[in-house]
Amino acid sequence: MTALVIAMDGPSGSGKSSASRGVARALGLRYLDTGAMYRAITWWMLHHGVDLTSPAEIAARAAEPELTLGVTPDESSVTVDGADVTAAIRTAAVTAAVSAVSAVPEVRARLVAEQRALIGSGDIVVEGRDIGTVVAPQAPVKVYLTASPEARARRRTAELTGTTVEAQRAAMARRDTLDSTRKADPLVMAADAIELDTTELNLEEVIAEVLRLVKERT
Ligand code: C5P
């Protein structure tokens, strides 16, 4: 068997992270969270007072932050210039700002190259928005996870404190629109991806379905 790459794409709240980790654990594969890389660059830009309304300024600074990532399901820590930002990249401020940063082609070019280097020869589950279309179009298994807006907002609300389903639904709709309408590598399902609607499925069922697809396609 050739080295395995499993591409897990989809919008936020579709269940990508938990399912990707679960699949990686079940198969003894590495795990790469590409969203964490966009979040880490965004954290650095906020920390350094970069004007996020200026794509030119974001582009000019895109190469500066140095990232390191843990790439196993149990060790997915992130550092920027040596500082551990694993928790800091999950704050509401970073979540609200990340789509402006991830839309800038210079940011994407840098991170896509780093993601390909981390994928290396494979044996990895990679989650993101453009893995099956841009980062690893040769991946033998591509899953595109979806769920109803209600289910996605409910899941995200359960993970956070001090928010409501309504507020989450509005924030996610805004991020989806930005991510899927940007010019550079928008969120779109790969032609050869399998769409998996997780609205009515629990985590174990999603993992089992992906494992079934892996068996079928490899
Ligand atoms: O998956 P997560 O919600 O952590 O991703 C954060 C943001 O990073 C997304 O809203 C999107 O703007 C960006 N992203 C991306 N391409 C990826 C992964 C994430 O543009 N492959």
From TrEMBL:
It is found in: Cytoplasm. Gene3D superfamilies: P-loop containing nucleotide triphosphate hydrolases (3.40.50.300). Transmembrane segments: none annotated. The keyword ATP-binding applies. CDD domains: CMPK. InterPro entries: Cytidylate_kin (IPR003136), Cytidylate_kinase_dom (IPR011994), P-loop_NTPase (IPR027417). ATP binds at residues 10-18. The keyword Iron does not apply. Keywords: ATP-binding, Cytoplasm, Kinase, Nucleotide-binding, Transferase. Residues 6-215 form the Cytidylate kinase domain. Its EC number is 2.7.4.25. GO terms for molecular function: kinase activity. It comes from the Bacteria. It catalyses: CMP + ATP = CDP + ADP; dCMP + ATP = dCDP + ADP. NCBIfam families: cmk. Belongs to the cytidylate kinase family. Type 1 subfamily. This is Cytidylate kinase. It comes from Sphaerisporangium aureirubrum.
